[in-house]
Amino acid sequence: MMTTTASTKRPSPIDANDIMGDSLVDNLTNLLITPVMMPEQQGRYGNHQGRGIDGSEAHDYEAYTESHTHTDGGVSVTQMPDIVEHDRLIIGSRSFTVRMAKVDSLTFGFGQTLILHLTEDSA
Amino acid sequence: MPTNFTSRKTVRDALTALFTTYNTATPLWAEVYKHVVPIKDFAGRSPILRILPDGSEKRFNNEWTNPTEFRFEISNYVLVYRARDNWSSDDATDKIDECEEVISQIIRDNAGGIANACNQLRFAGASDVTYDMKEGTLYAIETFTVIADLFSGAI
Predict the structure, then answer these.
(1) Which residues contact A23 (CB under 8 A, 6 or more apart)?
(2) Interface ipTM
(3) Considering only alpha carbons, which residue of chain B is nearest residue A58?
(4) Cβ within 8 Å of residue B12, ≥6 positions away
(5) Mind telling me how many Å the CA of B120 is from chain A's nearest CA?
(6) pLDDT digits (tens, 9 = 90+) for A86-118
(7) Which of B28, B39, B42 faces A17 most closely, judged by CB atoms?
(8) Least C-beta-crowded within 10 Å: which of A93, B132, B134, B137?
(9) Would you say the pTM of this structure is higher than 0.90?
C-alpha cells in the first residue's frame, strides 16, 4: 500500500527572539506513504474543499504510513516516521502542510498506523 | 480638472514600513505582511503581523481640500501551543502582550504622521483579542484598527 515516496521539511525551531518557523529544514527522506487521497473517498468526511486564508482553493487529503526504514536527519532508521503538525510533506513537485498526525490506536494490536491529515499548499 | 488622490496603497506601504523597519532592528515577528497570507507561509509560524486595508472616508469640503481617513486592520497572530519547542499558552499570552506594547509604541511615535503618506496616525477604539483556528492551528489574534488622517487626500 505504501507506494509513494515522499520527504518532509520541518519549520525551524523557536529562536532566541521567540520567533518560530522562519525557514523550513529538511527532515525525513526516503519516506514511504500511501498515495494521498481525498478523505471523502472513504466516506468519513463531508466536503473537504474550502478556501484558504489567502482566498485560494484548499483541498484536504489523507495519507497513511507505518514503521519502516527511511532516513531521518541523514541517518537510516527503522521506526514510525517522525511527522508532526506543521511539517511539510513533499511528493514530487507537490507540497502539503501536515494539519494533524496521529497514531491510529485502533490497529494497535496489529501494528500502528500514522494517519496524516494534509492540506495542499497553494502556489 | 481631475483630482488625484493619495492612494491607500501608498499609506499602507508606509505604515507597513514602520513595522518592517522596527522588525529589522529588533526582531519580533517572523514576517510582516501587507496582504492576506498563503497557507504554506502561515502554518506553524509565529508571531505574524498582517496589515490590511479596512475602508476609507473622503469628504469634499470645498474646491481645495479633500480630508481623508484611511483605516487599516493590523492583526497580530501568536501561536498558542507547540510542544516540541516547549511553547505554552502562558508564553503566547506574554508574547501577545509584548507585541501589543510594541504596536502601540510605533503608532504613538508616528502619531504626527508619516512623511509623504499621512498627517497623523491614531487608533480607532480598543483592540480585540480572540483565539481562533487558522489552518488547523490555534492562534491568539489581536486586531487593532488604525486610522491614517490626511488633511487633504488630493495631491
Answers:
(1) A11, A12
(2) 0.79
(3) B39
(4) B34, B51, B53, B70, B72
(5) 30
(6) 899 999 999 898 888 988 766 556 678 899 988
(7) B28
(8) A93
(9) no
